């Protein structure tokens, strides 16, 4: 019944004693009789479900005149079963365990497909999944059919998965995995390992500690962890001294953070075993790329100046492994990093760097590249067209202005920043429009369509 109705009638003692009066008023004010039960479940109100359930007749002969869904909820077995599946899916999608228990307590003789758990799997609702699994259809036994007549269940196929890696990871984040542990639930060793590693990745050390088997440390699962606080703890307890390879693998991670003090500490640990690690050159270059990508100039300078860094760079030059450095800096718009790479002879792959700068709208990077490299004419024309389309499509005004000043037919380095001549009549709109016509003739391309006309005077 509506609480509001009871409160109002409380002021009228003579009417309040008549239960049928309360029922009549509540039903008059209540939801429409054509409201599907599963739609009502979306409100998350058990009181509303009780209300609709009590207003639904149990026999066909008791139905009210007219066509109403409330007439069929409990009296039509087919509609009854269909509504159970739909309502159970809504409750599972919401992670509403009390509502699911309510549905199993009130419906009877219904079987839902395992697909009702799909959304719950994606959201990491372990308690919901466990509840559904405990109510799976039992095919064994002579009384299985009789049980189905009085209870409800969920049918799982032989290939249906209880939960996935993503489910466990989500459960670490939404608190349901911790709640399962509070209730005494035991996880298999593979599931526990997945949960520990993800808990470390999201910085939930307390949860990771609860899952670690006796005699082991959470840091035994820390390989690949990118949380700086976890790495700091591993340094403090001298865990990394036991595993030089693990220490070396963490150099790119700490370089990405910009923590020069931590970089120095990890490198000091890792370099003692660098000659034994065949991947240490790639690891070092990867760390330098992280410094370029995130604009950590101090970290980059230290890595490049370290004896191991100089040796790694010498080896990397021979294999062209330093191709990633300049594009990474250009993509982020870190001109000071690009200047450092240029001064150290590490600036290569100018065309690739220009494409990265154009893609992200980094006008400062593009200008630096034009000032420091002589692009050939055909290469420059392609970059010019790419810059125009990207600038117009994504609203990169500074990049648009930079390339609008550039004469697409003349290499930038040979002519400098060539301003548009006063007698020149063709604007960049002409080239974009012409290129768009050419694109339509050839068919669709990856560039956004630009339809424009000559700006009015």
From TrEMBL:
Transmembrane segments: none annotated. It comes from the Eukaryota. Residues 436-457 are annotated as: Disordered. This is Ankyrin repeat-containing domain. It comes from Phytophthora sojae (strain P6497) (Soybean stem and root rot agent).
